[in-house]
Fold these 2 entries.
Entry 1:
Amino acid sequence: MRLRHVLALSSLATSFLVVISGSAAQAAPLPTGARSLESVNYPGRYVRHLDFLGRVDPVTAGSSEQTKRDATLTVVNGLASPACYSFQSREGLFLRHRDWRLRVDANTGDPTFRADATFCAVDGSVAGSVSLVSYNYPDRRIRHRDFALWLETYQDTAIFRADSSFRLTAPWSPKTNRGPVIPGLFADPHLTTFNGRYYLYPTTDGYASWSGTYYKAFSSTDLVNWTDHGVILDHGPDVSWADNSAWAPAIATRNGRYYLYFSGGAATGNTAKQLGVAVADTPTGPFRDALGQPLIRSGQFSGQAIDPMVFTDDDGQSYLYWGQGAARVVRLNPDMISFDPAQVRVITPPGYNEAAFVFKRNGIYYFMWSENDTRSEDYRVAYATGSSPLGPWTTRGVVLQKRPDIGIKGPGHHSVVRAPGTDTWYVAYHRFAVPAGNGTNREVAIDRMEFNADGTIRPIVPTP
Ligand code: FUB
C-alpha cells in the first residue's frame, strides 16, 4: 500500500511541476481532484484537519479511515481567483486561514472567506514539491510549526522553505462516489459537442448572491476526464456593461464561429441582469463581447433577462430561449447576434421558473425547464413536448428531482446532449454540492437520460 502510494506520488509530481527561475517561482498548474499533501521535511506526515484545525500528522496504511479522510483534500478552482486554488475537505469544507491558523470552514461565499481560502502555487523547496502562498496576504505561506499549520510571513531560510513545502500525492482516501464531474463549485452547465468532443460551459459558483465574474470552459472525450481550458470570458476586462452575475452561459455555433450567450449585472447604476452574446473562433475562446452592449436589456421584456439557450433546428434556423419568471423564444437572425423584437413569443409553461432547454429527437421537440428556486432543495426539472421549436407544448411532468435518501438536493438548471453518432443521451445539471453545499455552493453532475418507446423521458436517476 505504502509503495503504491509512493509510486503514484512520483508520477503525479513529475506531471505537474515545472521550475521557473526566481524566488517566488510559480509552479505549473496543479492537477485538480483529490490529493494528499505530504510534508517534505517530515515524510510520512500529511496535511490533515483535526477538530477543524490544520496540522501535519503521520498517516500510514494502518491509519483509521477517518484519519485518511482528514488527510485528503480536493484541489479545486480558487474561490477567489481561477489562477490559484482552494482545497476542500471530504466534508465539503474549505481550508482557510483565520487569525493566521489554518482551519476548515464552510464557504460563506463572501469576498473575505473566498480570499482566505485561496492559495497560489509556487515551487517548493525541493523538486516535485509545492508551496502555497496566501491569495490575500501574498507575503505569507502555509507552513507547519510544532506540527500545526500556520500562515506565516515568508522567511528566506532553509527551515521555513522546508516547513512550507509539500508534495501532492495520491489521496489517502479515494472517492467512493462519482462526485462532481469537474472538481469544485460550478452550476448551470451547458454540455454540448463540437467535432465529436464534449464541451462544458458552467457558471462559476461559490459566491454569495451568485456574484461570480467569469466563465471557464472544459472539454472531454469520455465525460469522465476533463480538460480545463481556463477563463474564456471575464466580465471585468471583457464586458463593458456587466461586472458580476456571470450566470448560465450557453454556446452555439454557425459558420465556424462560436457564440456564447450569457447574463450579467452592473455593480453600480442599473444593476438588473441583462443578456449578452460573445463570439470566438474556437469553442474555448477567447471570446469577445460581440455587441459592446446587451443583446437583451433589463426591462425590455418582463421577467429577468437571464438563462439564455440556443437551439438550432435541422434547417439551420437558430432559436433563442431565455428568462426567469417567464420563458420566451425568438428566431435569431443568421448573424446570431440580433433578432426581431416584434417576433418574441411568450411560452411560459405552468411551474416554470427558469433555465429553458430545447432539443429534438426523432422529430419530437422537447422543451425542458427548472421549477422552484435554485436555493430550494425542491429545485427540479420538468418538460413538455411539441411539434415545432415554438410549440405548442404538451406538459409531461417532472423528470429530475431531489433524492434525500442519497444526499441529492436541488438538481436542476440542466442541459441535454446526444453522444455523437448514437441514440445515447446525457443530462448535465447542478445540485447542492455533496455533502456541504447549498444554493450558491453547487456542483455539476452528468447522468444518463433515457426514453420510453413513445418518446417520453424516463425519470432521471441521479448518481451520488
Ligand atoms: O447560477 C445563477 C442562477 O441560478 C442561474 O441563472 C439560475 O438558473 C439559477 O441556477
Note: Confidence is low (pLDDT under 50) at residues 1-23.
Entry 2:
Amino acid sequence: MKILVPVKRVVDYNVKVRVKSDGSGVDIANVKMSMNPFDEIAVEEAVRLKEAGVATEVIAVSCGATQCQETLRTALAIGADRAILVESGEELQPLAVAKLLKALVDKEQPQLVILGKQAIDDDSNQTGQMLAALAGLPQATFASKVVVADGQAQVTREVDGGLETLALNLPAVITTDLRLNEPRYVTLPNIMKAKKKPLETVTPEALGVDVAPRLKTLKVSEPAKRSAGVKVPDVATLVDKLKNEAKVL
Ligand code: AMP
C-alpha cells in the first residue's frame, strides 16, 4: 500500500513575520523556512504505518520553488522512501495544489493521502478537502488517531464536546490534527541516508494542470497593537478600577 504525503515549505513557526510596507503580503526574504508542522505529523504517521507493516511505500510531495527540495529531504530523513517536487515559480494557491495532487493521485494510485489540516502560513485549511472532492475520495479531516486494516481506515476526530470515529473505504484522504502523534527527531545518519533517496522533479505543465491564481490578495495588515497595561498598588484599587473604569464587576 502506497501513502502519498504532501508537505509544504512555510516560514518557520518560531519566526515573527513582518508585513511588507506596501501591504501586499509578508516579507519572507532571508527568513528561516521549514516543513509545515502538521505535515511533519503526516509524514510521521505514514512512516509509522510503514514500520507497522501496513504501508509498503511513503512518497512525499511538495509543490513550489526549487528550495522545496530541502523540505522533501527532511521528509526523506523522517523515513519517506522517495520524493516528488512539482516545481513552479508561481504562487500556488490551495486549489492549484489540490489539482496538482489529484494528477499525482491518478499517476501513483496511493491508497492513502495524508495531508496537514492546514498550512501555518496561509491558514487556508482547504487543500485536503478540495483534493478529496476532485479525486472523488472519502475524507476524514483533523485526525487524532488513525487505524488502517482490512481495506478501511478508522479515523478518530476531535470535535466539540468529544471524539468522533469515522470508517472510510480506501483509497481515502486524511488530514492531521496536532495530537495525532509526536514527530521523531531527525538524526544525522538519517539526514545522510536521505541524500541518496530518489527525488523526481515534474512541472505543472507535464501534469496538465493550470495553476493560475484564482484569488487576489487585496491587503495584508499587522494585527492591532495591544495597549500598555497599568500596575495597581493593591487589591482595593484593582476592584475599584474593575467596577468603575472597566465596568466589568
Ligand atoms: P492549506 O489548505 O493551504 O491550509 O494546506 C493544507 C495542507 O495541504 C498542508 O498541510 C499540506 O499537507 C498540503 N499543502 C498545501 N500547500 C502545499 C504545497 N505547496 N505543497 C505540498 N503540500 C501542500
Note: The helical segments are 37-51, 68-78, 94-108, 127-135, 188-194, 235-244.
